[in-house]
Write a structure and sequence with these properties.
This protein has 20 helices and 22 strands. By secondary structure, it is of the alpha/beta class. Strands 3-4-2-5-10-1-11 form a 7-stranded parallel β-sheet. Strands 14-13-15-18-12-19 form a 6-stranded parallel β-sheet, with helices on both faces. A 4-stranded antiparallel β-sheet has the order 6-9-8-7. Helix 14 packs across helix 15, helix 16 packs across helix 17 and helix 16 runs parallel beside helix 19.
Length: 559
């Protein structure tokens, strides 16, 4: 439809799971497009997350070297031309003569900072817009911004020399925010036009004078210029929450290929509030041959760093259960003098160490290098702060802070959607991504996480998968946790089919519902033992649950 000009200026989302043929469809289409005499005037733009991914698509497409060009890496910024990349001898021609142009998503954002998409000649074919536009993987219509107000003060020394008037304006802004209560709606002044503080100028002319952190703050200030923002107090600091739009508004129509489309709340918000997202036909994938062992334990970077030997021992023990098979371990990249989890795990392994591969969070998507590995361990995840999820909610829904406050339920929905997105992308680096008649290949996974309703998120990300408790530590429950578990066991023995409300358990224990939630329900040992009893949190019809219920078996769901 795009090739023939029959689409609306919308964003078309294909959220087929890994292994169901998104990439195959793209490369087959590109080859057919270039071979079609009826479409000789039609060209395509393919935007990928990283330069490394371009090679795979080119090799799979079967395009001849005179049919494509590549714009990636550090292209020159000359007034009329750019340096077009030859990927290690794969070939390519000048972009205006190439039917298919491959580029990175970062390049699109960079080139469109100054101008709308239609005015960027680098992306055009023979002076005309490319009709077919394909965006591979994650797409966010807007970027949520959380800016520490103290970061503004760090600009003063560098910016005072470059622009004294701008520095004076920022001093005033910093003083205003210093005393602003939590939830204050703040209208930022126009910091871009009066003082020549445009981001592109700062990057192009003053980059050497500003550190990457200061340049990011400058970018945020320009992006939030003249916007309505909200002040949030978080962990003893003040933040401004707003949004930016790094994707040019006239990029549509474009097809988005993102397996996470069905699990991320950001697309749902976009679809519901902006009404410019169109979901393409879905195809279900059965994960019944996937078994996920879940350890209800903290998976944040600092939590793991402070007790890394325990995590490493648990991961090594899991890998040693299959000493003759290959494994992939996804973990946090160590910083500075931190102990490398990979080295700690290797020290506890049996057999051939080369059978275990390691991948760090942040590199956990967009590669098929590990597609034949049958076992995977996800050590934690890339958790973000509550204020980051709030900012993302405002950005994707386009609801300004002054219009409506992000509720706790909405924030939790975004947070759990981001967790599902990360886990789906990371786990699908291995053999589970393969499709065998609509069912995934047999796979065993181990997941360490406890933030949010992890079990429910795993079930939603991998329909049909078996989620079983993983207990690397042998610790017996005590105190209130043991008391609550006994109450739940008695309820199970009584054979009562109805929901067991949280309030009823708290009342029986003689404590407040809030205390029960904070000190019992969120206790790691309670959560793991609850799953072992065949019980889950349920009711409520949304993110917030109201009680305990038996975990329904597949046969019960079918009935």
């Amino acid at each position: 439809m795009m090739a023939e000009g029959r689409t609306q200026p919308s964003y078309y989302l294909s959220s087929l799971d890994p292994g169901l043929g998104k990439t195959t469809a793209v490369v087959s289409f590109l080859k057919a497009l270039c071979a079609s005499d009826q479409h000789r005037h039609v060209s395509a733009l393919v935007c990928l997350a990283r330069r490394e991914e371009i090679r795979d698509v080119i090799e799979g497409s079967g395009l001849s070297s005179d049919e494509f060009a590549v714009l990636a890496g550090k292209a020159s910024e000359g007034p009329q031309s750019a340096r077009w990349v030859d990927l290690d001898g794969l070939g390519g021609v000048a972009p205006d003569k190439a039917r298919v142009l491959f580029t990175t998503q970062a390049m699109v954002k960079h080139r469109c900072k100054r101008s709308p998409f239609e005015d960027v000649s680098a992306f055009q074919y023979r002076g005309e817009l490319r009709q077919v536009r394909i965006w591979d993987e994650s797409f966010e219509i807007a970027e949520g911004i959380t800016m520490d107000h103290d970061a503004i003060a760090e600009l003063f020394r560098s910016l005072r020399v470059l622009n004294p008037e701008a520095t004076k304006a920022l001093l005033g802004l910093h003083r205003e925010l210093e005393d602003a209560p939590d939830g204050t709606i703040h209208e930022l002044p126009d910091l871009a036009s009066p003082f020549g503080l445009q981001l592109v100028d700062a990057l192009d002319h003053h980059g050497s004078a500003l550190s990457p952190e200061k340049l990011e703050t400058l970018y945020h200030l320009v992006a939030l210029s003249s916007q309505t923002c909200v002040v949030r107090h978080f962990q003893g600091r003040r933040y401004l929450i707003g949004k930016a739009t790094p994707i040019p508004g006239d990029l549509a129509p474009v097809v988005i290929l993102d397996a996470s489309g069905r699990v991320r709340q950001t697309y749902t918000l976009w679809e519901r509030h902006r009404r410019t997202l169109v979901r393409l036909k879905a195809a279900a994938k059965d994960y019944s041959r996937l078994t996920i062992h879940h350890w209800f334990k903290g998976g944040g970077r600092e939590t793991i760093r402070d007790d890394i030997s325990r995590y490493a021992d648990a991961v090594a023990a899991a890998i040693n259960t299959k000493p003759d098979q290959e494994w992939l371990v996804v973990h946090h990249k160590p910083r500075d003098e931190e102990t490398d989890l990979a080295e700690a795990v290797l020290s506890g392994l049996e057999g051939n160490l080369n059978r275990v591969r390691f991948l760090t969070w942040g590199r956990h998507h967009g590669t098929n290098e590990y597609a034949d590995i049958p076992n995977v361990v996800l050590v934690g995840a890339l958790y973000q702060r509550d204020i980051d999820h709030e900012a993302r909610w405002h950005a994707c829904s386009e609801i300004a802070p002054g219009q409506q406050r992000c509720s706790e339920e909405d924030r939790l929905a975004v947070e759990e959607g981001e967790f599902r997105h990360m886990v789906l992308q990371a786990l699908c680096r291995v053999v589970v991504r393969k499709n065998e008649g609509g069912t995934c290949a047999p796979c065993t996974a181990y997941v360490i996480a406890k933030k949010g309703d992890v079990v429910r998120s795993l079930k939603e990300a991998f329909p049909g998968a078996a989620i079983v408790p993983w207990h690397p530590e042998t610790v017996e429950p005590s105190g209130r946790v043991a008391e609550a578990l006994e109450i739940i066991r008695a309820w199970l023995d009584a054979g009562v089919p109805d929901l067991l409300p949280f309030k009823s358990v708290a009342r029986t224990m003689g404590i407040q519902p809030r205390t029960f939630r904070d000190n019992v329900r969120q206790h790691p040992l309670f959560m793991s033992r609850l799953a072992a009893l065949g019980v889950e949190e349920a009711g409520g019809g949304g993110v917030r649950k109201t009680g305990f219920a038996r975990i329904a078996m597949e046969a019960d769901r079918a009935a």
